[in-house]
Design goal:
It is a single chain. This protein has helices at about 40-45, 85-95, 105-115, 130-140, 160-175, 210-215, 220, 230-240, 245-255; strands spanning about 1-10, 15-25, 30-35, 55-60, 70-75, 150, 180-185, 195-200, 205-210. By secondary structure, the protein is α/β, with parallel strands linked by helices. The protein has a single domain (about 1-205), classed as Rossmann fold (3-Layer(aba) Sandwich). The chain has a 6-stranded mixed β-sheet, with helices on both faces. It has a 3-stranded antiparallel β-sheet with strand order 2-1-4, covered by helices on one side. The longest helix is centred in the middle third of the chain and has 16 residues, at about 160-175. The radius of gyration is 19 Å and the shape is globular. The two termini are about 35 Å apart. The mean pLDDT is about 90.
Length: about 260
């Protein structure tokens, strides 16, 4: 579905080099690594906001265009919310995407239902919590019926409860067939993904399943990335084939918060 084929991109003081990976439909992908490793550049290339200097990025066999089946959510939701009410904000997005006006109400209702904001159409956006604002931005994307949603370190402004709700939403969106790609500096968040892509100095160091990464946390340590205790414990559980027991994981997660 998403293909990076020998992709290179260069800024004056930084470049990404020879990037190759494939993402399948309906996967949740975590892109992680130290600051200035190239995570955001990868996302912008994937969304069509940047063009490769060499190689190609393909989404369903075509060059990506943000808004054309691809939605992108940035760190600070306030930068993506324009209007004073939830309904008006989504209507503005639909208008820009040239969605027929007769479809607006149904699309707004469906999108708000998916992000658990049903019934809040007339709510003032300024009164929303950080987590609700993030869900509104996601609803804006969902109203346009994307196949892919890209998130650039969106958990930064969220409290622990809102983060948990966000990652629960990721799984719900995956179940509906949407592909999720999210960048994070918080290594513990990789547990919410299917596969993990580790960036370092503009290069892909590893692209593997979450289970493979948990079995080899030295991949992070080799890049001088701190590995939180939660992941160390999950890695040990993996050795004893306990990591599939969801109740054990939930209990440990609560105890270690």
């Amino acid at each position: 579905m998403i293909i990076f084929n020998n992709v290179n991109f260069k800024y004056p003081n930084f470049e990404i080099k020879d990037i190759n990976f494939n993402i399948e439909k309906g996967e949740i992908i975590a892109i992680t690594g130290n600051n200035a490793s190239g995570k955001t550049t990868i996302l912008n290339l994937m969304a069509g906001l940047l063009k490769p200097k060499k190689g190609e990025v393909l989404v369903n066999g075509k060059k990506p265009v943000c808004g054309n089946g691809i939605g992108m959510v940035f760190q600070n939701p306030d930068n993506q919310i324009i209007f004073s009410t939830i309904s008006d904000d989504i209507k503005f997005t639909l208008k820009n995407q040239r969605v027929p006006k007769e479809e607006w109400n149904n699309r707004i209702t469906e999108a708000l239902s998916l992000v658990h904001l049903s019934g809040l159409e007339k709510q003032e956006t300024s009164a929303l919590s950080a987590g609700q604002k993030q869900r509104l931005v996601i609803a804006n994307m969902l109203a346009c019926k994307p196949e892919i949603l890209i998130f650039d370190e969106v958990s930064v402004y969220l409290d622990p409860e809102a983060k948990n709700e966000l990652f629960k939403l990721f799984k719900e969106l995956k179940a509906s067939g949407i592909t999720i790609v999210f960048a994070t500096n918080l290594i513990g968040e990789i547990v919410h993904s299917d596969k993990v892509l580790i960036m370092s100095d503009g290069e892909v160091k590893t692209f593997a399943t979450r289970e493979e990464i948990l079995k080899n946390l030295s991949l992070f340590k080799d890049q001088n990335i701190h590995v939180p205790l939660k992941l160390e414990i999950l890695s040990k559980l993996k050795e004893y084939n306990l990591s599939d027991d969801e109740e054990i994981l939930k209990t440990l997660w609560r105890k270690l918060k």
